[in-house]
Amino acid sequence: MTSRAPIDLGRRERQIVEVVYRLGRASVAEVLAALPNPPGYSSVRAMLRILEEKGHLKHEQDGPRYVYLPVIRHEKARRSVLRHMVDTFFGGSSVQAAAALLESDDVRLDDEDLRRLGELIARARGKER
Prior knowledge:
This protein is mainly alpha-helical. The chain folds into 2 domains: 11-70, Winged helix-like DNA-binding domain superfamily/Winged helix DNA-binding domain (Arc Repressor Mutant, subunit A, Orthogonal Bundle), CATH 1.10.10; 90-128, no CATH class. Helix content is 59%, strand content 9%. It is built from 6 helices and 2 strands; from the N terminus they run αααββααα. It has helices spanning 11-23, 28-34, 41-53, 74-89, 94-102, 111-128, and strands spanning 57-62, 65-70. It has a two-stranded antiparallel ribbon. Helix 2 (28-34) crosses helix 3 (41-53).
């Protein structure tokens, strides 16, 4: 079983994985409580088992219940999903993806955001040398 980022998941599976990432670890009841328009308890339990079989989650025994945890760190999953999106929608071009974000009408950058972007650009320039 190989762990991978949640790019091959359906909507409800993604919601469940997001809940587990947000909480860090979660029981079936905790996942159920955090889902919008939740299905039944046994449906959530079954989806958690499937997500474990797919390699996205693992479980630990906590008394009489299972507690589910992400298999890969959130940052690694986030990078993998982002890479998949850039490859799929922007032909692999990080520049085109960043430009699409920055040129969006609803993006508002404050001075701190611009400073941080400047640091990232300077770091990227340093890597080229």
